[in-house]
């Protein structure tokens, strides 16, 4: 694993996604060379996996989905991560995936939840594969419920990981726990504090040794201004603040744009200090603490 952006992280490149306008145009125009260029750029920037989704089109156009997978594997050799909630689409992707083109590296299936466990029905006929498990929700009395505390996140992650190990034979190294990083602007209940505590708990459990803990960073700065109070790039600085605290606790993988310049922040960094203050607050105090990110 290479050093990436100042942190020793496994990077799952997130750019092959029609949520980005430029990629939506490529998908709409069947532009496979354009998609290939996005794949190559991410790998050259240090991506260890490439997340792949073409949005709703994947449900009705299996031929194009297959063509996308094959086109990407024709130009890069890193393993792919298939980002679809439905087993039918995941099956198409797994069948199209060429293990040899990835030097024998297994693909990632993103994402499994306790409520969406049917994706594991694909494991024996179309596996093996690695998995991303969302620890943001659990099944309680047959109903999917959001996890809001460190204990809920941790117990969901532990239960899912041990189920994957005991029932399917997955090694912990083949399991990625997505702890779902929320937007700070809406965090009035200490969810970020709970997330960091859950990372610590997962990494401290000897039965989960070797498991990967990950998350996507794009939501964290949602609805915030572009510039921080100190003039820095607010969203980038906030993402770096999270990583500065989370990586030492055991966070080791990220779904992100590989060329974003993530770096550890010094202790006296304005945004890091403001983020630490947010972590200590709840309710209206949390909202006031968030304003300190962009108002001196």
Compact description:
The protein has helices at 21-28, 32-44, 57-60, 62-75, 87-96, 123-126, 150-168, 191-204, 234-246, 270-279, 283-291, and strands spanning 10-16, 49-52, 80-83, 108-112, 130-134, 137-140, 143-146, 175-178, 212-216, 253-256. With 296 residues, it is an alpha/beta fold.
Descriptive notes:
By secondary structure, the protein is α/β, with parallel strands linked by helices. The chain has a single domain, classed as Dihydropteroate synthase-like (TIM Barrel), CATH 3.20.20.20. 40% of the residues lie in helices and 16% in strands. It has eleven helices and ten strands. The strands form two sheets. An eight-stranded parallel β-barrel has the order 1-2-3-4-5-8-9-10, surrounded by four helices. Strand 6 and strand 7 form a beta hairpin. Helix 4 crosses helix 5. The termini are far apart.
List keywords for this structure.
40% helix; 296 residues; globular; TIM Barrel; alpha/beta; 11 helices
